[in-house]
Write a structure and sequence with these properties.
It is found in: Membrane. Residues about 400-413 have low confidence and may be disordered. The strands form two sheets. Strands 1, 2, 3, 4, 5, 6, 7, 8 and 9 form a nine-stranded mixed β-sheet that branches. Strands 10, 11, 12, 13 and 14 form a five-stranded mixed β-sheet that branches. This protein is of the alpha/beta class and about 425 residues long. It contains twelve helices and 14 strands.
Length: about 425
C-alpha cells in the first residue's frame, strides 16, 4: 500500500489533535474552587484551609434546576499545607477539586503576621493551577469566618464578586491592586501592600471619606464586608497597616499609578464651613530621582495631578477670578503634600523600606545586583531626605447653572 504525502500529513495532524484529549476533564465531574482561605491552626506548623467551591449551575441556563441550591459550598480542612488539604478535602467531596478557576486567596491576619505564612504560600505556588494573578486579601478576622460572613446581596457568584471589587479598587484607590505575582516579587525586604478587609463593624465616627480602615466606615446596612486600606507586608509577613488615605497616596507616589481616578474631600478654600469634592487623576507618570552618592540619600519626587470639581456644596464660583482658581489649586497642593509627608514620616519611623517601588530607580545607580544589595536600601530610606512636590492643574470647575466665560470677569483686587 502506497501512502501519498498529503495522506501521511493528514494522519499526523489527526494524531496530534487526538493526543491532547488524554488529560481532559468533564465539567460535571469537577469542583471549581473560586476562593481559598488560610488561617493559623491550633497545632504548631498546621494551617486551616477553607475552600469556597462555586456551584456551576447557579445563574446559568440550568438555574431553574438549582433554585434551592446554594451558590457555593464551603469546606475547611486542617493540614500541614494547602496542597495536602486539597487532597484531604476529597474525602467529603464527590467531585474532583480544581484550582483552574481560583480567583482569590483570603489570609487571616493572625496567619499573615506569622512566619508560617510565607512557607505555606511559597510551597503552594508549585501547583500549576495556582495562578500568580490570583487576588490576595488579608482579613482582620479569621479567613474562615470572613468567607462564611461574606454574602453579598447583589452578586451570588463569589468569583464575580471579587473580580468586581478589584475593578473598583482601580477606580477608587481605597485598596491596592494586590496579587500573588506582586507579592512574590517583593519578598526580599521591599514593602508590599495587600488589600485589607473585614466583615466586622467597628465604626469610629465621621471622618474624611478616605480616612478609614476596613470595618471603620460608618455604614448602617448593606453587605457586611468592607474593603478599604491595606496590610503592609515585608519579607513575606504582615508588619502593619495603612488606612484608605495612606493607601491612595502610596499609589500616587509610584512611578506608574494603577488608579484610574479617585474622588476625595478637601476644605473649601473660599468657605471654611464647607467641604469640596474633587476628582483626581494623573495625565503622566510620577517623576522620581534618587541620588545614592550622598548621605543621607536624596529623593526628589514630582507628582502630576489633575483636578476636577465634583461637588461644590458652598456654591462658590471658582470661574469668577484667577485668584479663586489659584486658591483652589494651592489648597490641593498643600493638603496633598502635607498628607504625603506624613505618610513618608510614618514609613521611615516604623518600617525598613517603602511601598512606592522607589528602590527600582535607586537600583539603576549600581553596576551589579550585589552592589545594590550591599547598599541596604531599606536602611538608607529610613534616613533619606525626601523632597516631594505636587504639580496641580485644575481642568474643570464643575457644572454651573450659567457657566460664565473667564474673560468676562475682572480679577479680584
Amino acid at each position: 500500500m502506497r501512502w501519498n504525502g498529503w495522506k501521511l500529513g493528514m494522519v499526523l495532524v489527526i494524531l496530534l489533535l487526538v493526543s491532547g484529549c488524554g488529560e481532559r476533564r468533564e465539567l460535571e465531574t469537577s469542583a471549581f474552587v473560586s476562593v481559598i482561605g488560610l488561617d493559623k491552626a491550633e497545632q504548631d506548623h498546621q494551617v486551616k484551609v477553607t475552600f469556597q467551591i462555586s456551584n456551576p449551575q447557579v445563574n446559568t441556563t440550568q438555574s431553574a434546576e438549582a433554585q434551592k441550591e446554594p451558590p457555593s459550598d464551603i469546606v475547611t480542612i486542617t493540614s500541614v499545607d494547602l496542597l495536602s488539604a486539597k487532597e484531604l478535602a476529597q474525602s467529603s467531596l464527590s467531585r474532583e477539586i480544581t484550582f483552574s478557576h481560583l480567583q482569590t486567596i483570603i489570609v487571616g491576619e493572625e496567619l499573615a503576621r506569622d512566619d508560617l505564612f510565607k512557607h505555606i504560600i511559597g510551597s503552594a505556588i508549585i501547583d500549576p493551577e495556582m495562578r500568580r494573578e490570583t487576588i490576595m486579601i488579608v482579613s482582620k478576622e479569621r479567613a474562615q469566618a470572613f468567607i462564611h460572613a461574606n454574602k453579598p446581596t447583589m452578586e451570588t457568584r463569589p468569583h464575580k464578586y471579587y473580580q468586581f471589587m478589584e475593578d473598583n479598587w482601580r477606580k477608587t484607590g481605597f485598596s491596592p491592586v494586590s496579587n500573588l505575582n506582586a507579592f512574590f516579587q517583593r519578598t526580599e525586604g521591599e514593602l508590599f501592600l495587600a488589600a485589607y478587609a473585614t466583615a466586622e463593624r467597628d465604626p469610629i465616627g465621621i471622618r474624611h471619606d478616605d480616612d478609614y480602615s476596613a470595618g471603620e466606615v460608618p455604614q448602617d446596612s448593606g453587605d457586611p464586608v468592607q474593603m478599604i486600606g491595606s496590610a503592609v507586608m515585608q519579607e513575606g509577613k504582615m508588619v502593619g497597616m495603612l488606612n484608605g488615605e495612606e493607601t491612595r497616596i502610596s499609589q500616587l507616589l509610584r512611578r506608574k499609578n494603577l488608579i484610574e481616578t479617585m474622588t476625595a474631600e478637601f476644605p473649601d478654600p473660599l468657605n471654611e464651613n464647607y467641604q469640596i469634592s474633587l476628582v483626581l487623576n494623573q495625565s503622566s507618570h510620577t517623576e522620581i530621582e534618587v541620588d545614592t552618592d550622598r548621605s543621607p540619600v536624596k529623593i526628589d519626587v514630582k507628582v502630576p495631578l489633575q483636578v476636577k470639581v465634583n461637588s461644590n456644596i458652598a456654591l462658590e464660583d471658582f470661574t469668577a477670578s484667577q485668584k479663586r482658581r489659584d486658591a483652589l489649586r494651592e489648597m490641593v497642593k498643600e493638603k496633598m503634600e502635607e498628607a504625603s509627608d506624613s505618610l513618608i514620616k510614618k514609613l521611615q519611623e516604623n518600617y525598613t523600606g517603602e511601598p512606592f517601588v522607589w528602590y527600582a530607580t535607586a537600583r539603576r545607580n549600581f553596576w551589579t545586583v550585589s552592589g545594590f544589595e550591599n547598599f541596604e536600601w531599606g536602611e538608607k530610606f529610613k534616613e533619606a531626605d525626601v523632597d516631594l512636590h505636587y504639580e496641580v492643574s485644575v481642568t474643570s470647575f464643575g457644572e454651573q447653572l450659567s457657566p460664565p466665560a473667564f474673560k468676562k470677569f475682572e480679577e479680584d483686587k
